[in-house]
């Protein structure tokens, strides 16, 4: 805990990975087995691969991959990277399997949740979802997280074991919420873009009791779950279905801070570029845009070799386009100033080795941020049918 | 049966999407990890039962020797074996080149 951190009370305890898995004994045991394998993959096997790749670290990622293609350890590493994710979701005791069996019950839970504080959930189910979103099974989750009510619950359960080596999985989101708090007026309006089931929205809400907090996502199923969680926890959060690149529900200059965690590596470059312009329109003069995502990759070419491989094997194709994007130039073109990309320490001492390759597999967490100049006004105007300040 | 050098090369070919270019090796490894998952699940279940039975003073010597003749247990084993076999052998049934999910990259693009 940092010395200046005043939000300790705002941190919600996050259960350990194995404790968080719901289900019967067999499901819990199988998921624990998968997490155990992933923990070994993230540490022991990763260390062997990293040490071997270090011998060709001067080569570009494609050449490193070519050299490593004869390594038995790397082949096993790559195979497990694909299949551990599939094992987590599918098979007899996979999370998608588990929740799909209860789809009707879960649909009922979401429906009941919508009846409670209905003014805080604005799903726009008639609006088509973007092609890139429906055409890609992100994280190898077939049908995405928008097809069925159970998909939202499976996504929520799966997210708890995304980083099994982290000492406190919830720390990442709480730390990002602390950052959002630090750059936003205490009574400001915060928009959490790509909020999912509220994993970052909730800590922002807790960290900023005087603010207006709005979560935005594409999936009505996930937003329904986020709303249900907020209602159950007594959190005053408004959830709105909208597109980051075309925010029809938000007026010009109505938001103090737009935050997004783990969002922009899931969108193609053209959509992201348009999203920057849309963020500029919605932000108040002096407003801040901050993403927590994957951009500054430690470990040089070997680090890039590993994260690019993850992009392929976890079916997250737009990690590649984000890493190739000139974020500073695109932000400047959209009108932002004070653009910065800085490595983000998701837990204590995560960046202790600076730009070197980490000792275990970790995402290259980065804050990507910019400011809308205080004297500038938006080039386009829009009146919205929903005002976040209402 | 002999194995030519060409076949060996093909067997060890590298696929950037899975690490294993040989579909048979890919599927056999799937079987092994599924089997290990079954084994771990079974170990957890046995441990759970053992703790409960010991707590209740139910577990006594000789129980295991008589259990094979239990018709209810036999019926359970028959049903469980079907689900067990399907889970274990599903990786073998996947079509060559089949992906279980909609993929965002073409095979060429998947190369770094």
Automatic annotation (TrEMBL), chain A:
InterPro entries on file: Methyltransf_25, SAM-dependent_MTases_sf
Name all Methyltransferase domain ranges: 190-287
State the Pfam families in the record.
Methyltransf_25
User: What PANTHER family does the entry give?
Assistant: METHYLTRANSFERASE
Q: What is this protein called?
A: Methyltransferase domain-containing protein
- In its UniProt entry, the species of origin is given as Nocardioides bigeumensis
From TrEMBL, chain B:
* Protein name listed in UniProt: Uncharacterized protein
Q: Which domain of life is it from?
A: Bacteria
């Amino acid at each position: 805990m940092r010395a200046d951190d005043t939000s300790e009370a705002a941190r919600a305890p996050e259960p350990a990975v194995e404790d968080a898995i719901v289900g019967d004994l067999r499901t819990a045991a199988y998921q624990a087995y998968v997490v155990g394998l992933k923990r070994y993959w993230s540490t022991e096997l990763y260390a062997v691969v990293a040490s071997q790749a270090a011998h060709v670290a001067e080569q570009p990622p494609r050449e490193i991959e070519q050299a490593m293609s004869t390594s038995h350890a790397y082949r096993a590493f790559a195979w497990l990277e694909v299949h551990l994710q599939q094992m987590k979701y599918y098979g007899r005791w996979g999370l998608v399997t588990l929740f799909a069996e209860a789809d009707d019950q879960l649909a009922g839970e979401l429906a009941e949740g919508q009846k409670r504080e209905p003014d805080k959930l604005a799903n726009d189910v008639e609006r088509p979802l973007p092609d890139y979103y429906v055409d890609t099974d992100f994280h190898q989750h077939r049908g995405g997280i928008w097809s069925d009510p159970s998909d939202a619950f499976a996504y929520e359960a799966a997210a708890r074991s995304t980083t099994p080596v982290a000492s406190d999985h919830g720390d990442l989101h709480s730390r990002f919420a602390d950052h959002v708090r630090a750059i936003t007026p205490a009574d400001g309006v915060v928009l959490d873009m790509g909020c999912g089931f509220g994993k970052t929205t909730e800590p922002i809400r807790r960290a900023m009791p005087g603010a207006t907090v709005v979560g935005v996502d594409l999936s009505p199923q996930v937003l329904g779950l986020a709303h249900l969680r907020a209602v159950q926890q007594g959190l005053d959060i408004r959830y709105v279905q909208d597109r980051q690149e075309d925010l029809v529900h938000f007026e010009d200059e109505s938001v103090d801070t737009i935050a997004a965690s783990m969002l922009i590596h899931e969108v193609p470059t053209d959509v992201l570029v348009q999203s920057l312009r849309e963020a500029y329109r919605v932000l108040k003069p002096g407003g801040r845009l901050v993403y927590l995502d994957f951009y500054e990759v430690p470990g040089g070419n070997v680090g890039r070799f590993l994260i690019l491989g993850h992009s392929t094997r976890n079916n997250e194709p737009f990690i590649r386009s984000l890493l190739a994007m000139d974020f500073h130039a695109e932000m400047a073109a959209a009108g932002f100033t004070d653009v910065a990309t800085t490595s983000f320490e998701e837990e204590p001492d995560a960046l202790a080795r600076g730009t070197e390759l980490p000792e275990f597999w970790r995402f290259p967490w980065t804050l990507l941020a910019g400011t809308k100049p205080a004297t500038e006004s938006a080039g386009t105007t829009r009146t919205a049918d929903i005002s976040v300040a209402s | 049966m002999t194995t030519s050098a060409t076949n060996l090369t093909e067997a060890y070919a590298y696929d950037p999407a899975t690490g294993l270019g040989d579909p048979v090796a890919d599927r056999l490894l799937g079987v092994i990890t599924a089997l290990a998952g079954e084994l771990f699940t079974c170990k957890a279940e046995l441990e759970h039962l053992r703790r409960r039975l010991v707590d209740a003073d139910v577990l006594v010597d000789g129980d295991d020797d008589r259990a094979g003749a239990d018709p209810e247990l036999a019926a359970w084993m028959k049903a469980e074996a079907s689900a067990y076999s399907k889970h274990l052998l599903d990786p073998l049934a996947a079509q060559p080149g089949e992906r279980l999910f909609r993929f965002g990259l073409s095979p060429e693009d998947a190369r770094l």
